[in-house]
Amino acid sequence: MVEYMPFIWIGFAVIMAVCEAFTSQLVSIWFVLGAVCAAVTCIFTDSIPIQSAVFLIVALLALILTRPLVNKLKSKKSVVNTNADRLIGKIGTVISDIKDTHTSGQVKVEGEVWSARSDLAPIPKGSKIRVLNIEGVKLIVESED
């Protein structure tokens, strides 16, 4: 059995690499690294417990060292800008009263009519507003007066 251990470790590494290829997240790449290192260990020792220990230590270290980096890369949201983003910072006019923070009125910005709400409501009809943000299909505005 000992003479076949390098092939067993390499076979395990290949199986884990194939499993990794079929997943969209990093699931078994650490086992691939551990199995390759265990296969290299076969050159120096015939002890299966030592090879297994190398496998476990390398896989665990790879997991511990790379997991924060993977989580950081995964957590970055891809922001898709739309042409509506051009309205942020623009000045417009209230055409329908914004009565309170829970109800929306209507504003006209660059010739387009939008639903709008304000965290600093009320804003009466005819007031000038500045667009602060866009949430869904509503502009978040503040009074310019």
How would you sum up this structure, described in words?
By secondary structure, the protein is of the alpha+beta class. It folds into 2 domains: 2-75, no CATH class; 83-143, Beta Barrel (OB fold (Dihydrolipoamide Acetyltransferase, E2P)). It has 3 helices and 5 strands. A 5-stranded mixed beta barrel has the order 1-2-3-5-4. Strand 1 and strand 2 (105-109) form a beta hairpin. The mean pLDDT is 88.
**Helix count?**
3
Portion in helices: 40-55%
Low-confidence parts lasting 5 or more residues at pLDDT below 50?
A: none
**Order of helical and strand elements:** HHHEEEEE
Q: Return the structural class.
A: alpha+beta
Q: Could you give the distance between the termini?
A: 84 Å
Mean pLDDT: 88
Shape descriptor: rod-shaped
Major β-sheet annotation: 5 strands, mixed, barrel
Number of domains: 2
**Strand order of the biggest β-sheet:** 1-2-3-5-4
Architecture blueprint of SSEs:
Elements: H1 5-21, H2 29-41, H3 48-75, E1 91-96, E2 105-109, E3 112-117, E4 128-135, E5 138-143
Parallel strand pairs: 3-5
Antiparallel strand pairs: 1-2, 1-4, 2-3, 4-5
Helix pairs in contact: 1-2, 2-3
Please give a handful of descriptors for the protein shown:
single chain; alpha+beta; OB fold (Dihydrolipoamide Acetyltransferase, E2P); 2 domains; 5 strands; rod-shaped
Describe the structure in brief.
The chain is an alpha+beta fold. It has helices at 5-21, 29-41, 48-75; strands at residues 91-96, 105-109, 112-117, 128-135, 138-143. Helix 1 packs antiparallel against helix 2 and helix 2 runs antiparallel to helix 3.
